[in-house]
Amino acid sequence: MKGNAKFSWDARNESTLDKRKSPVTYDALGRDKEGNLILHQNRDGNDFLSLARSNRGAQTWNFETSLTYDQVFNDDHRVNGLFFIQYHGNIPTISRLIILQLFANRNIGIAGRAAYSFRDKYFAEFNFGYNGSENFAPGKRFGFFPSGALGYMISNEDFWKSLSSVISLLKIKGSYGEIGNDKIGGDRRFAYNTERCSIREVGISDVIRQSGSEVSQPDIR
Fold first, then answer.
1. In a 3-state reduction of DSSP, which class is residue 206?
2. Helices and strands, number each (H, E), in the chain
3. Residue 101: how many other CB atoms lie within 10 Å
4. Using CB atoms within 10 A as the burial measure, which of 51, 77, 120, 132 is most buried?
5. Non-local CB neighbours of 15 within 8 Å, separated by 6+ positions
6. Are 161 and 185 in contact (CB under 8 A)?
7. How many other CB atoms are there within 10 angstroms of residue 92's CB atom?
8. What is the model's pTM?
């Protein structure tokens, strides 16, 4: 049996300070008799300096750990298995974002696999995933996703040896499984709620924006 664990943490922060000035500009049309430039104003401007500031950032956590097992009994029976745990979290640290994006994105899940083969000819495998996402309503955030497979390695049979020079590997396999997805409606968050609003920080002032109402779908899972 083998085991391993992995952890990563990443922080990213950006800050931008934009200073601009838009002066009055002119076209030079030529010179008069005294040699002075003849100017024509082509754009209005001012002597004020504009200032805009923006900040953004995020922190990300990832954690994975697994246990694996692989053993052969009596040269005929091969048994192997896997148990896996995974956590992912992401949260913005600066508020120059849509307010719904300020909430952390978190996913957690466990997965497992159990497999058996007899003389590397006949195979059976079962997999499962139990995953959770905070993008769904309470009580409907976790789902169970099983899968199974059966296989037959024909090319490992004794009668296939005469054909191995033509076809060295031939295997028949059938499988069935279920999967899930929490990316509902593109980047939409918390689809089980009817209304939502957003707040965006523009420059050094706060501007409140209403993004409108969206029909809730509380039965999404």
1. strand
2. 0, 11
3. 16
4. 132
5. 53, 54, 55
6. no
7. 18
8. 0.64
For residues 155 and 170, the answer to whether their CB atoms sit within 8 Å is yes
pLDDT tens digits, one per residue of 58-95:
889 999 999 999 999 998 999 999 999 999 998 877 65
Average pLDDT rounded to a whole number, residues 4-30: 89
Residue of higher predicted confidence among 151 and 221: 151
The whole-angstrom separation of Cα 36 and Cα 39 is 9
Question: 210 with 196: CB under 8 angstroms?
Answer: no
Q: What is the pLDDT of residues 86-123, one digit of tens each?
A: 999 988 776 554 566 667 788 899 999 999 999 999 99
- Structure token digits, residue 4: 């391993």
Q: Which stretches of 22-101 are assigned E, i.e. beta strand?
A: 25-31, 37-43, 49-73, 77-92
